[in-house]
Design goal:
Strand content: 25-35%
CATH class: Alpha Beta
Order of helices and strands: HEEHEEHHEHEEEEHEHEEHEEHH
Shape: globular
Radius of gyration: 21 Å
Number of strands: 14
Number of helices: 10
Largest sheet: 7 strands, mixed
Strand order of the largest sheet: 3-8-9-14-12-11-10
Distance between the termini: 41 Å
């Protein structure tokens, strides 16, 4: 079944492939990136770092893997089972390996011989942080700068909908006022940042793509409480703009799971802002052309191009 904007997605994807900004891998939503594309990603990432430096965040970098035990303590399996990535490998005997190879040779399904490892693909850059934050926060709370590849299984011809992509996040852990203030401040700050690189962004109340009938109820609740805002930019469509950043208030969801408390002993609240680095690069290429050397002078100045 085709989406309404499939033609626009395919046109932009084809142009990116022809320009060798994206390099096809044979899997929808998984691409190699050219040096030009990667440079734009890195320049915007450095811009995010410069803007966030005033908050003197702790800097942490996790691999795109999260402990399966920690993952199972969160509700991702209940709410996003269709997006998860579970890492499996072969742990069998020599005889079982021979059977695996026999199945592969005749075109049978050999994957049933694989067993789950101790890790999952990271579904959000902030997920590995919370298990490390167990205990009492300082009075001023914590602000953490995170960047990671994240995985979401949603193959698509839309070049902005990748299965593996990078997020640069600032996470705030603290009192409700500290977390909500972080969320709201970064909505405005993110809009200013995107405007400075001549992207026409606007904030919209949004919800996560929760799975199933219960997920639809959760999505309504999330929108009614205005917990999630996305900053959207026209890329392949002006009437269905693409989210390139989001600013989210989690209430005490993660702190109750992992035992994170404020200095006065209450469950901490958390919030995060996340910038989708590949999506922002795609928005910049769409708005300003495929040659960054010819982008508007102010944009090149902001990105130090």
């Amino acid at each position: 079944m085709h989406e309404p904007h499939d033609a626009a997605h395919e046109t932009y994807r084809a142009a990116l492939l022809d320009a060798r900004l994206l390099i096809a891998s044979g899997v929808p939503g998984v691409y190699g990136l050219s040096g030009v594309f990667e440079d734009v990603v890195e320049r915007f990432d450095q811009y995010v770092t410069r803007v966030g430096a005033q908050f003197r965040p702790e800097v942490m970098r996790f691999p795109p893997l999260v402990s399966r035990a920690h993952y199972e303590r969160m509700d991702h399996l209940e709410t996003f089972p269709n997006l998860m990535g579970s890492v499996h490998t072969f742990m069998g005997t020599d005889q079982e390996h021979l059977e695996l190879m026999r199945k592969r040779a005749v075109g049978e399904d050999w994957s049933a011989a694989l067993r789950p490892t101790a890790v999952m693909m990271t579904p959000a850059a902030c997920y590995p942080l919370y298990p490390t934050a167990v205990g009492v926060l300082p009075q001023e709370g914590r602000t953490v700068d995170l960047r990671s590849f994240v995985f979401r299984h949603e193959p698509s011809i839309d070049p902005t909908r990748l299965q593996i992509f990078r997020m640069h996040e600032y996470v705030r852990l603290g009192t409700p006022a500290q977390a909500l203030g972080h969320r709201d401040d970064w909505i405005e700050r993110g809009l200013d940042m995107l405007a400075a690189v001549a992207l026409d962004a606007r904030p919209v109340v949004a919800n996560d793509p929760f799975f199933g009938r219960g997920g639809r109820v959760m999505a309504v609740m999330q929108r009614e409480q205005s917990l999630k805002y996305e900053l959207v930019v026209p890329i392949t469509s002006s009437d269905a703009p693409t989210a390139v950043a989001s600013s989210n208030y989690h209430l005490d969801h993660f702190s109750r799971t992992f035992g994170i408390t404020t200095a006065d002993g209450r469950d901490a609240h958390t919030a995060c802002v996340g910038f989708g680095l590949e999506r922002i690069a795609l928005a910049l290429f769409k708005a300003h052309g495929f040659d960054p050397g010819r982008w508007p002078r102010d944009v090149r100045r902001v990105l130090a191009l």
